[in-house]
Each structure stands twice: as structure tokens, then as C-alpha cells.
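Sanity check record (used in CI):
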Amino acid sequence: MSDQVMQSAMYRRFRRGYLFLRYIVFAGSIICLGSQRKHLLKWIRSVTPGYLLRAPSPWLTFDAISYLEDQPLAGKKIFEYGSGGSTLYWLSRNAECVSIEHDRRWYETLRPLLTRGTVDCRLVMPRPLPGDALLSEPDDPASCLSSDERYHGYSFEEYVSQIDEFPPEHFDLVLIDGRARASCIRRAVSKVRPGGMLVVDNSERPDYFRRTGEDLKGFQKHSFPGASPSTFIWTRTDVFVKDV
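Expected output for Class I SAM-dependent methyltransferase:
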């Protein structure tokens, strides 16, 4: 056996051991945290490959998913930034969905699965920015920038503005789980109908709300911290319900 083959085999064993340790540690933390214990079996199933597309399930915290399960979604109009398990979930609930995705490879993986229901799935990729635009910050809702280093120097203006073609108070639910989230929040608030929901995932990140607090003043916030499918981290999903 060559040194290269041996090193590759050792790396694979190390990686399997590392992933198993992460699995055990996080499962133990779910058990120890009483409020999340009820989600343990769902979480165990979710870490298998392709779960979010097979289930299907939104990539939100389990408590936020439970909240959505209690909402009547049949026939509702939904707009989402970020496609995937959530797209299939809305269709399984007989809702209409407009879904915006920035990643071509993921879009091409998902597209053949959208064989039922009413869905408008759009691939809208970021565009390179002129140099002077790099002075803006991702937490500025006017910037349409992503904080992800992979998209440094790219604008998500076209991606964010997809919702502009719809009239005010058109959607029953808007999910923000994609790129340039502060910008998406600002564009989306006027498109949510009274009594409708604006759902923001990974909402423990303060940069999403540092400059959008005023935009959300007409909403009541429901926070759902905890575990989420297919991940080994604690996160939070906020559901903002628009005042009637």
C-alpha cells in the first residue's frame, strides 16, 4: 500500500470518527435540554443523507416547524428566498410557492423533484459589483450583499428584488433563508398580508436586524430556539406575524 493510499484511508477513518463523536455529543445535548428532547428521533433521522428532500421539511428549528404544522397552509401564497426541503414542504401542504435560488447546482438538483403543485422556482444568480460598491456592509438593507465570503464582490440586487413584481400584502408567508437577508427583510415586509407571517431563519444573528428593526415594528415576534434538521448546531427561527 502506497503512502498516499494509506494516508487517504487514515483520513477517512479519522473523519468517520470525528463525525460519530459530533453525533454523540449533539444527541446528548438534545437529551439534556428538556425542551428539545421530544425532537431527538426526528433529529437522528434528519442526519441521514438527503433527508430534507425526502421528508420533505423546511430547514428551520424543529419547534418552528411544529408551529407551521399547526397553520392552515392549503391554498396560501408563499414566497421564499432559498429553495430546498421547504419548497417541497409547501407543495406537500398544497400551498402555492414562488421560490428564489442563487445556486445553480442546487437548483438543478431540486428542479426535477418539483413535479406536483403550483411552484415558480427561479434561478437568480448574483452579479459582480463595481469596486466602489464594496464599501457597503451586508447588514445595510440597501446593499443587497451577502456576508458569506464566497460572495464577496457580488450583488444580490436581482435576487432580492424578485418580490417587487408582486403587489403589497400579496403573500400569506414569506420565508427568508437565503442570501442578503437584511435586504430581503426590508423588501418583504410590505408584501406580507395582515395576519400573515415573515419567517427568518438563523435569527440569532444580530446583523439581520441591526438596521431592520423599524421595518418590523408592525409585527409580533415568536422565537423558536433549538435544534434543526441535519445540523449539529443550536440556532433560532423567528416567526413575525403581521398586525391585522
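The mean pLDDT is 91. If this sentence no longer matches the regenerated C-alpha cells, the check is flagged for review.
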